[in-house]
Amino acid sequence: SSLLLMAGIVAAVGLCRRLTRRRLRSHQRLRTFLLEMFSTFQICACTNELSLLGNVEPKPHTALTLTYGFTVLHGLTLPGSTCNPCGTLQPMWGGGISVKTGGLKVGAQFVAAVLARVFMHFIWSLEMAEAHFGALSQGCSNPMQTTETQAFCIELLFSVVFQLTILRVESINPKYRVHLIALLITMLVYAGGNLTGAIFNPALAFSLHANCFYDKFLSYSLIYWIAPSLGKFLILYVF
């Protein structure tokens, strides 16, 4: 039923994106905002659900297989959307999009992160699936299973590796590129998922761990917002 729920989210977002493209051709700003918001909502909502399936046997094979499968699905169904504030920094920095458009996209990503969290909490409160029982009582699930310095370095390193790969595979056929990126994300989740969650996406981190940001805002914003952004700037500066 968790898989059905995620498939339903992907289908609904696909429909919303199609309608937005068709109906809002003349409203460029609103169209940009909504497309980015729907796309980020899909990733945040599905990842919130996936995080509940991390303990499904056999561990960690089930979780990693689902991570790979859904990353490929997101890549194929959400072309043209970055869904990551760090990814939006690049065209802003390079002059590909204006600061205003960049700000609009980042705003859309964080709005989507909050909406996805509220939506998933509502779904979990209905307790339709076994995985949903007790999901709301967890509070801050504390994804950091290491020191703050190590966590900062891990998210920074993963962000650098991820952004570097994105730059390197730009010229590859999109059909194959989606699988390469999904494979990389799955490998990073396998390598660091048990230490920091291996998120390297500020909006997604906020959607998954809003309670933690509320409890320990400074350390969480440093690790899940500043570290990946710093990784992005290092790549932009070097390349």
Automatic annotation (TrEMBL):
Signal peptide: none annotated. This is AQP11 protein. The chain crosses the membrane at residues 181-205, 217-238. It is found in: Membrane. It holds the Pfam family MIP. Keywords: Membrane, Transmembrane, Transmembrane helix. SUPFAM superfamilies: Aquaporin-like. InterPro entries: AQP11/12_channel, Aquaporin-like, Aquaporin_11, Aquaporin_11/12, MIP. It comes from Fregetta grallaria. Belongs to the MIP/aquaporin (TC 1.A.8) family. AQP11/AQP12 subfamily.
